[in-house]
Amino acid sequence: MTFKLKKLALATSVVLSAFMLQACNDADTAANHNQQQTESTAKTEKAEMKSLDVNVIYLDRRMLPPGAVLNVALEDVSLADAPSTTITSEAMDVAGAPPYPVTLQYDVAKIQNNHRYSLRATIKVGDKLVMTSTTNIDPFAADVKQPIEIKLDRVAHQQNETAENTALVGQQWNLVTLEGETVKPGAGGNVAFIQFDMDKKSAHGFSGCNNFQGVFETSNGTLTMGPAAATRKMCMDGMELEKSFLETMPNFASYVIVDNVLTVKDKQGKQIATFKSDK
């Protein structure tokens, strides 16, 4: 009887040891699996981050005032009827002469092949805009090389900014000249025009054959527009006008209104379009 009890105790001990050994092995396996998952996730997250090297310059020889802050942003400008969406941005205090090197880190997962993107840079002192970029720069275009150069233009502050903004919106601006040439009516004898909605920061109109929509920004005499989206109707007349009109819009940089005439200039100060109010 005693021999059988000892034999049973020994067998029980062996089984318990086996269970404990298996439990340890399972714990080690689980720990290793969790560690591998953590390392894999970390590597994946790291692989999704890329950078854009940017040099911000301006040709104005005047020094920046104290407290100047440079902001560079990567924006999604795909939606013609909505403001741009910021993917990532970097801000830094600036002093002295340019160039100002900036590195933007962005998440690759946020970049979609069928979307349009642009780099934008501004310099502010407090809430006052001092300089801004006025051209669309696609950082993912095939011919773009880093560091990507962004040129800033000084903002001409005006005392009557509110009055001019009020005059800009709420009415139809009929296109009169484009790149120095008098504009003829488009399809159906209709005049190309543009209208601005300050609340929505959106613009819409007729470009010669199709209707279009886009977004715009205005501040202290500047006027910039993102790419416009148009309907795709084919017309016997107005197609050439439409092509030129839509291609010119992204070059808008500044504006002035005198006697119901809206004059738009590019970043070099060259007049590129004039409009007359329908009122």
TrEMBL record:
Domain DUF306 per the UniProt entry, residue ranges: 167-276
InterPro entries: DUF306_Meta_HslJ, HslJ-like_sf, Lipoprotein_YbaY-like, Pilotin
Signal peptide positions (record): 1-23
Gene3D superfamilies the record matches: 2.40.128.270
Domain of life of the organism encoding this protein: Bacteria
Keywords: Signal
Full protein name: META domain-containing protein
Organism field: Photobacterium angustum
Lineage: Bacteria, Pseudomonadati, Pseudomonadota, Gammaproteobacteria, Vibrionales
